[in-house]
Amino acid sequence: MEFITSFFNQYHTQIIATIITLVVIFLIKLIVNRIIKKYSAHANIKEIRIKIIIKYFNVLINIIGFVLLITIWGVTPQWLFASFASFFAIVGVAFFAQWSILSNVTAGFIIYFTSPFKIGDTIKILDKDMGIEAKVEDIKAFYVILLSKEGLPIMIPNNLILQKAIYTISREE
């Protein structure tokens, strides 16, 4: 019991600040999730897409919360910056080696938010060599799955989808 008392006496400011930060993070997540759901209902966005958008925002809020919490417990900004710089240098080298992964994820993020087409739409991808007309079956983080007129699945990387002109033939209501 004495250990707990001495621990609380020594770190009471950090403990209280941590509790307040956790409550604020929780409230921010609730508010952001409600705003996203309200906007999505108004914009007629499908449920699966709403869940993914909420997940992205929750990850961002958690990262910000983590940085706040470790700062509360005495991690200096210099150490934090040096650690993040080292981490991102390693990640940067890895992504430079596999730049297409990063471009596909970024393109997937853009497709989620701009909604040039939706699941169930029939689209035509205009290409100088060969155009593709197909129904959108699914939109993933790295690629879009289309279903051709012959019933064959076609997986096209998201970065290629953004580079081509797309014509929406029919929209699923």
UniProtKB/TrEMBL annotation:
Its main location: membrane. One of its GO terms (molecular function) is mechanosensitive monoatomic ion channel activity. The chain crosses the membrane at residues 12-32, 53-73, 79-102. Keywords: Membrane, Transmembrane, Transmembrane helix. Pfam families: MS_channel_2nd. One of its GO terms (cellular component) is membrane. The keyword Cell division does not apply. InterPro entries: LSM_dom_sf, MscS_archaea/bacteria_type, MscS_beta-dom_sf, MscS_channel_2nd. Coiled coil: none annotated. It is found in: Membrane. The keyword Transcription regulation does not apply. Residues 101-166 form the Mechanosensitive ion channel MscS domain. It comes from the Bacteria. This is Mechanosensitive ion channel family protein.
